[in-house]
Amino acid sequence: MNIIEIQQTDSTNSWVARNSDGLEPPCLIYAAEQTAGRGQRGNYWESEPGMNLTASAFLHPAGVKPREQFVISEAIALAVVDFLSKLGVEATVKWPNDIYAGDKKICGILIEHSIFGREITRTIAGIGVNINQTDFVSNAPNPVSVKQITGKEHFIPEMASMLGDAVEIRMAQTAMPDKLHDEFMHSLWRGDGAMYTFFDRIANERIEARIKSIAPDGILSLETTGGDVRNYAFKEVEFIL
Q1: In the chain, what's the furthest Cα-to-Cα distance?
Q2: First to last CA, the chain
Q3: How does strand 205-214 pair with strand 220-224?
Q4: What is the DSSP code string of 78-94?
Q5: Helices (H), 123-194
Q6: How would you write the pLDDT of the chain (241 residues) with one tens digit per residue?
Q7: Is the previous residue joined to 143 through a cis bond, with omega within 30 degrees of 0?
Q8: pTM higher than 0.85 for the full model?
Q9: How far apart are CA 205 and CA 109, in angstroms?
Q10: Which residues contact 82 (CB under 8 A, 6 or more apart)?
Q11: Are strands 237-239 and 27-34 parallel, antiparallel or unpaired?
Q12: Which run of H or E residues covers position 75?
C-alpha cells in the first residue's frame, strides 16, 4: 500500500475527500499534525502533534455491496488489532469499531463510504491510534497509548507503514466475510458472554445484558437478564464503563 505523509491538516478524512481525484487507492495518508480530528458522533479526536498515528486509508472495496458494508468495519478494526499486537498490545474491538486495550480506548475509527447505485465506490477509513502520547487533556474518559502500556516509543512513519500493511491484508479477506466475521466476534470487547451494564437510548433505561450476536449489517443484539433480545443500530445503545 502506498503511504503518503502530510505535515498538517484539519482531519485526514477531510483531506482525502478533498484530494481523492489525485489519489490511487489503496493508499494510506497520515498527518504529523491533525488540527480538527473527527471521531464518532462528531467528537473531537485529541492528538498531540507528532506523537500519534492519525491516518486515513483510501480504499476501493470492489465487490462489497452497500448492505454488506459492515464487513469493511470488521476488516479495519481487525487490522488495528493485528497492528497493535505487533507492538505488544493486546487489543479488542468495542462495537462497532473502537479499539480498546483492557477497558481503555487506544484507537478510534471513523469510516465514510461513497455509494453509487448498488456499489460502494470508495471508502475513507480514518484511524487514530494513540502511540507515544502520555498526557491527555481532553474530557475523553478513558484514553491510553502504546507507550503507556509498553513503555516504548515508536517512529510514526514506521507505524504508518505497518498499519497500511495490516489494512491491506485484512481488506483482502473481505472476500471471505464469514471467516472475517468469526474473527471479529472473537475479538469483541465484553464479548465473553457475561452480563454487563448498557444504556438503552431507545427505552431511556439502563439494562443488564450480554452480547448475543452482531448481524452482517452491524446490528447488535443484546440478551437481557430476563431473556429478552433487543436489537440496536449504532448510537442506539451505550456501553457503561
Answers
A1: 55
A2: 36
A3: antiparallel
A4: HHHHHHHHHTT---EEE
A5: 146-150, 156-172, 177-186
A6: 999 999 999 999 999 999 999 999 999 999 999 887 655 444 555 677 889 999 999 999 988 889 899 999 999 999 999 999 999 999 999 999 899 999 999 999 999 999 988 889 999 999 999 999 999 887 777 999 999 999 999 999 999 999 999 999 999 999 999 999 999 999 999 999 999 999 999 999 999 999 999 998 899 999 999 999 999 999 999 999 8
A7: no
A8: yes
A9: 27
A10: 166, 169, 170
A11: unpaired
A12: helix 70-86
Query: What's the full length of the chain, in residues?
Result: 241
- Amino acid at residue number 228: D
Q: What would the grid cell of residue 14 be? A: 477531510
Cell 505523509 found at:
5
The grid coordinates of residue 165 equal 500493511
Name the residue with cell 442506539. 236
Cell of 31: 498527518
